[in-house]
Amino acid sequence: MRIALLSTLFLNVVLGAAQPPEGYYSRAQGLTGYELKTELKEIITNGFNGQSYGDLIDLYQTSDNDDYYDDNQSFTILDMYSENPDGPDPYVYSFNDNCGNVSANEGGCYNREHLYPQGFFNQEDIMRNDAHHVVPTDGQVNGRRSNFPFGEVNNPTFTSRNGSKVGPSATPGFTQTVFEPIDEFKGDIARSLLYFATRYEDNWDDSSWDDKDSNVSDPRGGPNKNQWYEQWFIDLMVKWHNEDPVNQREQDRNNDVFEYQNNRNPFIDNPDWVNQIWTTTASTSDNSFARVNIFPNPSTGRFQIIDLQESVTISVFDVSGRMVKANQTLEGNAFEINGTGVYFVKLNSNLASKTFKVIVK
């Protein structure tokens, strides 16, 4: 339950974002798009010190204790599949209540959940033991999730006691079975999975992994290792990331995992990088398009595109991922956005695309 909400908000204001060591991301400064993603991959791979699978249970005592939602419960596990942010939890686990198998009923024990299922990467140790995407969850709900991708569900065939759901996908672009966590943890899960796509960028087409093209549940079906995931899944992860921002619990867990295996989740340290990578696919070889910019920014709602030398269409998204303009042909070099707030403007030409973050005052 959300007993510690006010203190968590206070800590967010006082402490700000999680603090990596000075210079940790220096090589990534000034980069955008997939060039940024690849540089982040190098940063979080260099010095990575993977631990054993069994060591994760010990880590959870510091990285995943439930002191954030249930005050003074630092001796119990924070389980995203059973946590009730707004009331009493349906059950709680001490650190010793772990088990290796699927529990017969909810509340029986917790085990280790691979947010990117380990069967997809043939249980290889480096990925299997990576704490940034392996979290403690109820054994029964973990089993119900199975290897289904994350998605959104309107008509569940199973609902856990905290409201997590299994059922046909209501997410545009995918119609098979998916698992939907509660809103409180959607951003956490999205950032973990985007970390995975970055850390293991070079394994996208690994022959020892499952056949991504024949396994409908594996979202690793993007056009290349840069995008990594299928488009519907990228769109959903960006949406969840924008709707559920980083909180103090994630920042602290990122620090704990850094102490444990000597690498960080860059999308917790710098959340803006998610949109800079996956809503920006500009071709670095197209120098004329690379010079395009938007002015003024911020604006009262009318923007001018600078150095535009070719025909483009324009799409506009709000911070929740909702499209407010859909692939409209741009007449002239100006456009308008109604309503104050932060938006992402995507320009598409025949050869490239480029996304800008703009503010309407």
Task: Give descriptors for this structure.
single chain, alpha+beta, Immunoglobulin-like, 2 domains, 3-stranded antiparallel sheet, 11 helices, globular, disordered N terminus, hydrolase
Structural account:
- With about 350 residues, the protein is α+β, with helices and mostly antiparallel strands.
- It folds into 2 domains: about 5-280, no CATH class; about 285-360, Immunoglobulin-like.
- Helices cover about 30% and strands about 15% of the residues.
- It is built from 11 helices and 12 strands.
- The strands form 4 sheets. The protein has a 4-stranded antiparallel beta sheet, with no helix packed on it. A 3-stranded antiparallel beta sheet has the order 3-4-5, with no helix packed on it. A 3-stranded antiparallel beta sheet has the order 6-7-10, with no helix packed on it.
- Helix 2 (about 35-45) crosses helix 10 and helix 6 crosses helix 7 (about 230-245).
- Residues about 1-15 and about 280-285 have low confidence and may be disordered.
- This is Secretion system C-terminal sorting domain-containing protein.
- InterPro entries: Endonuclease-I, His-Me_finger_sf, Secre_tail.
- Keywords: Hydrolase, Nuclease, Signal.
